[in-house]
Design brief:
The complex is a heterodimer of chains A (about 450) and B (about 190).
Chain A: E1 2-7, E2 11-16, H1 20-23, H2 26-29, H3 51-68, H4 73-85, H5 95-104, H6 119-130, H7 132-137, H8 140-150, H9 157-163, H10 169-182, H11 191-196, E3 198-199, E4 208-210, H12 214-232, H13 235-253, H14 258-264, H15 270-276, H16 281-288, H17 298-308, E5 314-320, H18 327-334, H19 342-360, E6 374-380, E7 395-397, E8 403-404, H20 405-408, H21 410-413, E9 421-428, H22 438-461
Parallel strand pairs in A: 4-7
Antiparallel strand pairs in A: 1-2, 3-4, 5-9, 6-9, 7-8
Helix pairs in contact in A: 3-4, 3-10, 4-8, 4-9, 5-13, 6-8, 10-12, 13-17, 19-22
Chain B: H1 3-13, E1 17-19, H2 21-35, E2 44-46, E3 49-51, H3 53-64, E4 68-78, E5 84-92, H4 94-106, H5 108-123, H6 129-145, H7 151-161, H8 168-181
Antiparallel strand pairs in B: 1-5, 2-3, 4-5
The chains are: A alpha+beta (about 450), B alpha+beta (about 190).
């Protein structure tokens, strides 16, 4: 008996019937309220799909992959359960919450076996371990195995590689799903052909691709690259994500909003986990920026109101972290989003606010608050590098020994891997005086803002 | 010091150049073993031996900041399709060297340990990256076992990992390398 659900990507997603209660559990149902791509709908209006849809898709794909590779019985069930529960720890606005957990959470409160993990991974593990409803549906031994498979797995490699690896079910689903809901074609690839070419030459060894599957992998890797450059790193999406993150920070640090502190200051307690599971996107927005009544926090409320009204910050500066930035400052700039880069980021934000106030002649209530200026950096991997995430590369089964996909693919070995770029950007709450002139204005501001950033790095370093 | 800084300093300590992607992973592995930093590098078993996503990420990061150049060249062999296989060579740029020197001054104790480790690995004159990879696999398996392993024990554990078993000659080479570099927990095939 199977549990089947209609799905726009896979037509039907199919799971074993005995997993239906897990799908119906509060842990999974909460994910219906968490959008897969946070506020990407402000640029791609169709991007309203949720972590729940994606979770079902991942479980379906993981099952297909496993069965195609001869994984069955308890191992198949384990892989499917890991698919169902892999996003259980997502908070409001998906990855935005991860960044805030890392910023505010107390890493010393992680359990000894979680010290190398990110806080959101620990939160996922704790939800699987301790959620009262899940405890009635799954045996402890099974929950612990799922936690291990999602974390430090010591068993058969292929099980891990289906759940987390360069060709995992997660990516296979989200590329197609995000592409579909954003209304773009960048994330499309031939999933059945990719599955047909997956092989497991040694049952205890690595998942590999047959040589005749190389083109399917090329398509998959390019899909990931195009989705990253066009959707995941889209300028407006970066701005909306940073605006939520900043709103959370202002709420905790400036507005002293206790409910935000309780949501993001991970302390390892069961109370933290229980509270965390009560939040989704809608509750977050309605609590911290109600539709009708004034927000509880002054600064966080103003930032969130801008998001509600789509009055987004504008990108006033963008430059590769390369020359003319001094080599000694590049690591600092790359680290701007983290705690280590915060002193520099804050100085840049103050100085750019001053610069914009002077340049635009802003006075009185129109003066830009430096807390609403965001200095940030991010990177885009080359197409070639996109074939591996933080994982090992994809192996192609060729005699006498398997070879990396990037060497076996004629297309990919001809791509210059050096095209990996990091950028420093500054967003600010301005309105372009004339939108037709904004590129020219940005160009005029480039040199003075670049100089401000260099000076900030220099002063903080000294 | 982060894994990124550690990798930067290891490459600096080897004269700023490492020939081969596999060799780079294994040199950093043994530098980690010798300095005690291995626990922070997150090495795990992979087809080509111990592999660290953090080290791969650090290499990528160094390249993206233009501190490390990657050059590809044919390694003199061909694959089954008749194409020449590619070797990836890494070299710090002048800027990468400059920043590495500053890091060496910033962490003098750590730098001393890394420089000594690099010297030890280089002076062991391992034949090629295949032998270095075998030595790393051997070390990882014995580290996991926490005891002396015989060749047959090792063969069994290799099979459990899905790794091709080594020949006796390769195994003995690995034993010699490990005895010189990290102190051995292994029996030679003649024991």
């Amino acid at each position: 008996m199977s549990f089947r659900s209609r799905d726009p990507i896979h037509n039907f997603v199919t799971l074993p019937a005995e997993m239906a209660p897990v799908v119906g559990s509060g842990v999974l149902q909460r994910l219906r309220g968490i959008r897969q791509l946070a506020l990407a709908s402000l640029v791609y209006p169709g991007a309203l799909h949720t972590r729940f849809d994606h979770t079902l898709g991942v479980t379906h794909v993981a099952g297909l992959m496993a069965q195609g590779l001869g994984v069955e019985g308890e191992e198949l069930r384990l892989v499917q359960l890991a698919g169902l529960l892999h996003d259980a720890g997502h908070g409001p606005f998906s990855h935005v919450s991860e960044a805030s957990l890392e910023w505010f959470g107390d890493k010393t409160k992680l359990k000894p076996d979680q010290k190398e993990h990110k806080i959101h991974e620990a939160v996922t593990a704790e939800i699987i371990r301790s959620d009262p409803e899940l405890c009635t549906l799954l045996l402890e031994v099974e929950r612990e195995k799922v936690i291990q498979l999602l974390g430090d797995w010591k068993g058969r490699l292929v099980l891990k590689q289906i759940v987390s690896g360069p060709l995992d079910a997660d990516k296979q689903d989200y590329l197609l799903r995000d592409s579909y809901f954003c209304g773009v074609q960048y994330g499309r690839y031939d999933l059945p052909q990719l599955h047909r070419s997956l092989v497991l030459p040694d049952p205890s060894g690595d998942l590999m691709v047959e040589r005749d599957g190389i083109h399917a992998v090329e398509q998959f890797v390019l899909a990931k690259y195009y989705m990253t450059t066009n959707v995941y790193r889209h300028r407006v999406r970066l701005i909306t994500d940073r605006m939520i993150t900043r709103a959370i920070r202002l709420g905790v640090e400036e507005d002293k909003e206790e409910r935000l502190s309780q949501l993001y200051k991970f302390d390892g307690t069961p109370e933290f986990i229980a509270n965390y599971q009560k939040w989704d996107d809608a509750r977050f927005l309605e609590t911290f920026c109600p539709v009708v009544t004034p927000p509880p926090g002054k600064k966080s409320g103003l930032m969130l109101r801008r998001l509600r009204d789509r009055r987004l910050l504008k990108e006033v500066f963008r430059h590769p972290i390369d020359k003319p930035f001094d080599a000694r400052y590049r690591e600092t700039l790359k680290g701007l989003p983290g705690r280590k880069g915060d002193t520099v980021a804050k100085k840049v934000e103050r100085d750019v606010a001053d610069f914009l106030n002077r340049t635009l002649g802003l006075t009185g209530t129109a003066v830009i608050d430096p807390d609403f200026v965001i200095a940030y950096s991010y990177g885009i991997k080359s197409a070639r590098e996109s074939s591996r995430n933080d994982e090992e590369g994809i192996l192609v089964k060729v005699p006498p020994t398997p070879q990396p996909f990037t060497d076996e693919s004629t297309l990919f070995r001809s791509i210059n891997e050096a095209y990996t770029d990091n950028f420093v950007v500054v967003f600010a709450p301005i309105e372009w005086p004339d939108s037709n002139q904004k590129d020219a204005v940005r160009e005029r501001w480039q040199a003075p803002i670049l100089q401000l950033i260099q000076d900030a790095c220099k002063q903080v370093r000294i | 010091m982060t894994p990124y800084d550690f990798v930067h300093l290891v490459i600096h300590a080897t004269g700023g150049k490492i020939e081969g992607r596999t060799k780079l992973q294994k040199v950093v592995y043994f530098a980690g073993v010798l300095t005690g930093y291995i626990q922070y590098l997150g090495y795990r078993p992979h087809y080509y031996g111990p592999f660290s996503p953090a080290v791969a990420g650090a290499v990528q990061e160094l390249r993206s900041l233009k501190f490390l150049e990657q050059n590809t060249r044919p390694d003199g062999t061909t694959d089954a399709g008749g194409f020449e296989k590619i070797r990836y060579d890494y070299a710090l740029t002048a800027e990468g060297e400059q920043v590495a020197k500053e890091k060496a001054e910033q962490w003098p104790e750590e730098w001393k340990g890394i420089a000594e480790a690099a010297e030890k690995i280089t002076s062991a004159k391992v034949r090629d990256y295949v032998h270095l990879a075998i030595a790393a696999k051997t070390d990882l398996l014995t580290r996991e076992a926490g005891r002396t392993l015989s060749p047959s024990d090792l063969k069994e554990r290799c099979e459990e990992r899905g790794w091709t078993a080594f020949t006796n000659e390769q195994y003995d080479d690995a034993v010699r390398f490990l005895a010189t570099v990290v102190g051995s927990r292994l029996q030679t095939t003649n024991d």
